[in-house]
Amino acid sequence: MNLRGSRHTVAAGLVLALLATFVAVRFVVSAPAFRSLVLQRPDEVTSPTGTTLSAAAQEIQKEAVDAYVYGYPMVTIEMTRRVMTNVEKPESTRAPMGQLVRMRSFPTAAFKDVTAPTTDTLSTTAFFDVGREPLVLSLPDARGRYYLMPMLDAWTNVFEVPGKRTTGTGKQVYAITGPEWNGALPAGVKAYRSPTNIVWLLGRIYCSGTPEDYVAVHKMQDEISLVPLSAYGKPYTAPLGTVDPQIDMRTPVRDQVNALSAAAYFNLLAQLMKDNPPAAADAPMVATLAHLGIVPGQAFDSSKLGADGTNALEDVPRLGLARITGWTMASIQAGVTNIVNGWAFTTRTGVYGTDYLQRAFITYFGLGANRPEDAIYPTSLVDARGQPYIGTNTYVIHFNKDQFPPVHGFWSLTMYDEQFFFVANPLDRYTLSERNMFHKNADGSVDLYLQHDNPGSLKEDNWLPAPEERFILMLRLYWPKETPPSILDGTWKPPTVEKVTPPVLTAP
Questions:
Q1: DSSP SS3 for 399
Q2: Residue 40: what pLDDT?
Q3: pLDDT at 299
Q4: Is the per-residue pLDDT at 11 higher than 90?
Q5: 270 with 67: CB under 8 angstroms?
Q6: What are phi and psi of 322, to 5 degrees?
Q7: In whole numbers, what is the pLDDT of the chain averaged over residues?
């Protein structure tokens, strides 16, 4: 999910990353501007004026590009946190630090605040700091309902995921502690140690969207609490947040990050690393950062690198972004991004180890991604013939008997326009899913119809309305099955989307 304007990417999946993949695959030759960005060679080290750098300055620049890629997730998380918590009290998709955002209803086609919205889950989210003391997350009995509460550290790694898949749906209480906290917890409270002080909770609760189910999910949301450990078990009223007028609430966060100078970027990274320490496996990279003068808790002073070194840094943001976006094509070649029957998806999300480039790539295009065990988001922009989807055409997705996406959680197919917004239609239908009562063929198979015009009453139950113009499809597979058939091991593949000729007759 990508937050527009003052908001940034929240992942319900890797929508924009997959969009970039398709753009690269289909238009890399015909779009010079995009090709220039994607195919930039990071080893072409020059100054902003185009003059060749000295050997020493080249080495500084190459190390700095590595450092830029390494730090991109944490700098992005921090800029996102500032914007999403810069309010006095919870409102819309924002809340002060340590307080919950509770999304109460599914969006409609009129909703333009976020891209790639969903009609499958209602979100409960929060940013919080466990540096001073742990925060206690209390989850009520979900009575078998599917939900997940992934917790991301400041480097975007998902370090814990309580929920139906992992901990069941009974009542549970967790104290999220900082990396160095040691202390006693009340009985019945389980410790989750965060690798960093900053934590991002991105909870999702399945909802059918009926009035009755809204009531049930709202009750569950209201029973979820997040309080400081010192207030646990006591009456607690969250304080008003402090609004900082200096924070840019209009420019998209990614644009703010990408606009930072190398000096400002590395200074922020150094400050953030003090309270959000690198992993032990990052020791070689930490040594590289120190060589550049990027030391946790210390101000970054580029002048210590000398005039040539300072000059070399000027081009680092451009080269760093080129390396990150350049992974679009390379990830396909490396098998990290899968292209199957016109659908693009990856299973390398949520936990990255020392794969700093993949981590930065996912941050750039789909911040907040789940672990693949929790969700996979195949996305498609082209039909079986490699042509972009056009709503005035008719397309069919055929599922053989008992061959719907294999999941323990739920699956859905969502229609978006080319800007990743819902499409207004007479049925107010934006998604087809296991909730629908589909008309089946004689052999038990199911055909789903994707087109602008109503295919007629006999097929309307299987119709996903499209705009007249281009559109985008996204499958959501929450808690995909681990054993065959499974998308995780490639034994289940999303079916092709076939253009139908002649078109299905429309309703009179």
A1: strand
A2: 37
A3: 97
A4: no
A5: no
A6: -65, -40
A7: 90
Cis peptide preceding 117, ω within 30 of 0: no
Q: Identify the burial level of 307 via C-beta atoms within 10 angstroms of its C-beta, where 0-12 means exposed, 13-18 middle and 19 or more buried.
A: exposed
Within 155-209, strands assigned E span 158-160, 172-177, 190-193, 198-206
Rounded Cα distance, 397 and 412, in Å = 13
Peptide bond into 140 cis (omega under 30): no
Q: Which residue has the higher pLDDT, 199 or 2?
A: 199
Beta bridge partners of residue 94, listed in sequence order:
91
Task: Answer whether 369's CB lies under 8 Å from 13's CB.
Answer: yes
Owner of token pair 């995909």: 480
CA 444 to chain centre: 35
Do 221 and 102 touch, CB atoms closer than 8 A? yes
The whole-angstrom separation of Cα 203 and Cα 205 is 7
User: What tokens appear for 147 in the block?
Assistant: 């939900």
The residue with greater pLDDT, 472 or 115, is 472
- Average pLDDT for 141-156: 98
Q: How many angstroms from the chain centroid is the CA of residue 167?
A: 23
Percent of the chain surpassing pLDDT 70: 88
* Segment 159-169, tens digit of pLDDT: 999 999 999 99
DSSP, collapsed to helix, strand or coil, labels residue 196 as: coil
Specify the pTM. 0.89
What's the pLDDT score for residue 38?
A: 36
Reading phi first (left if > 0) and then psi (alpha if -120 to 50, else beta), residue 209 is in left
3-state secondary structure of 144: coil
The Cβ of residue 382 has, within 10 Å, a number of other Cβ atoms equal to 18
Q: What is the per-residue pLDDT across 102-144, written as a single tens digit (0 to 9) for each?
A: 999 999 998 876 778 899 999 999 999 999 999 999 999 999 9
Q: Is the pLDDT of residue 491 over 80?
A: yes
8 Å CB contact between 384 and 447: no
Compute the distance between CA of residue 253 and CA of residue 435 in angstroms, rounded to an integer.
35
Q: Are strands 463-465 and 446-451 parallel, antiparallel or unpaired?
A: parallel
Q: Is 63 helix (H, G, I), strand (E, B) or coil?
A: helix
> What's the N-to-C CA distance of the chain in angstroms?
37
Phi, psi of 264 (to 5 degrees): -65, -40
Question: Which pairing describes strands 190-193 and 172-177: parallel, antiparallel, or unpaired?
Answer: parallel
Instruction: Round to whole Å and give the CA distance between 479 and 487.
Output: 11
Q: b/e for 77-102, b at 16 or more Cβ within 10 A? A: bbbbbbbbbbbeebeebbbbbbbbbb
Distance CA 81, CA 275 (A): 15
Residues paired with residue 346 on neighbouring β-strands, in sequence order: 337
